[in-house]
Amino acid sequence: MTAMPTAAAVAKTAPAISAHGLHKSYGDKAVLNGIDLSIPEGEVFALLGPNGAGKTTTVEILSTLVAPDAGQARVGGHDLAARPEGVRSVIGVTGQFAAVDSLLTAEENLLLMADLRHLPRRQGRRRAAELLERFELREAARQAVSTFSGGMRRKLDLAMTLVGTPRIIFLDEPTTGLDPRSRRTMWEIIRGLVADDGVTVFLTTQYLEEADRLADRVAVLDRGRLVAEGTPEELKRLVPGGHIRLRFAGSAELDTAAGHFGATAVTDPEELTLRVPCDGGIPALRTVLDVLDGAAVHAESLTVHTPDLDDVFLTLTGHGTSDTTTETVR
Fold first, then answer.
1. What is the distance of C-alpha 191 from the center of its chain?
2. In Å, how far are 8, 245, 247, 248, 305 from 262, measured between CA atoms?
3. Of 14, 73, 129, 188, which residue has the fewest beta carbons closer than 10 angstroms?
4. For 70, which DSSP code?
């Protein structure tokens, strides 16, 4: 007789976030048109889309801030409609704008959040000290937040989200307005949350590089619908234009190689290069190398070019992620 799985085992294998058929409209504007999601524990999931695509609305629904018009969802094992308090007990939310009190110090902001989380006083102080250290804010702990840079504010905002040790963190465009150095610092922090704490991160962003660098999986949201989902590499392979670029020492080698790759390869006699269409995967690379070996031709250099996520978005939606013609309700 096969043993039934325990409740703990079921909870462990269940998705951190699941949703089916989420709909939301504001007036006559349909912001979400039936969203289905399944996000495993310990994953960074990026929701990519332009302004008005429905990213923030998705976060607001899954974090219990807004009720959907239709559909069901479970977050951290709790039904969104039946147990919103259970959802709130396991999540943390960092919005597009830092929700910190500029008149308070960094330490005071964290202690205030600890009080709101009903942590005992001693535990709250210990947790605040840990987070100040972790986010490299200890030296600025007793400075007014009004003196902080944008990057410091965002770090403090994320630290406040972590006071209650959430299992699932929603980050709604967390690096908006940050300079490149501060943005990369935030990326390192987000990676650490998953690697060190095992949390699940639901990230919305307009930054293609951010999704590419951070996410295990990416979903492309356009006008309230998911138009594609997969790993960044899988999504890039949906788009034509990938190729391997071979450079040769002389025209004789170039001509010999071109004869073995056929009509689909593009020759540039001035640059002494040959462009071979491919998806950028290892099997395609191995095939190209085998052809060169068989032809006894040596290439001086080889580079793999694949479409980026901007190409993916343009192909799937007909406009880029910075498109402002999309309805801007949420």
1. 11
2. 57, 15, 17, 17, 19
3. 188
4. E
pLDDT tens, residue by residue, 249-262: 999 999 999 999 98
Phi and psi angles of residue 245, each rounded to the nearest 5 degrees, phi first: -105, 120
Distance, in Å, from the CA atom of 285 to the CA atom of 243, rounded to the nearest integer, reads 10
Cα-only R_g, the chain: 24
Reported as type and span, the H/E element at residue 219 is strand 217-222
What single DSSP character describes residue 158? H
State the Cα–Cα distance between residues 123 and 107, nearest whole angstrom.
Answer: 14
Q: State whether residue 304 is helix, strand or coil.
A: strand
Q: Which residue has the higher pLDDT, 176 or 27?
A: 27
d(CA 251, CA 256): 9
Calpha distance 252→228 (Å, rounded): 44
What confidence score (pLDDT) does residue 98 get? Answer: 67
For the stretch 110-120, what's the b/e string if a residue is b when 16 or more beta carbons lie within 10 angstroms of its beta carbon?
A: bbbbbeeeebe
Q: Which of 199, 191, 204 is nearest to 164 (CA)?
A: 199
Instruction: Report pLDDT digits (tens) over 78-106.
Output: 999 999 999 999 999 998 776 789 999 99
Across the chain, what does the average pLDDT equal?
Answer: 88
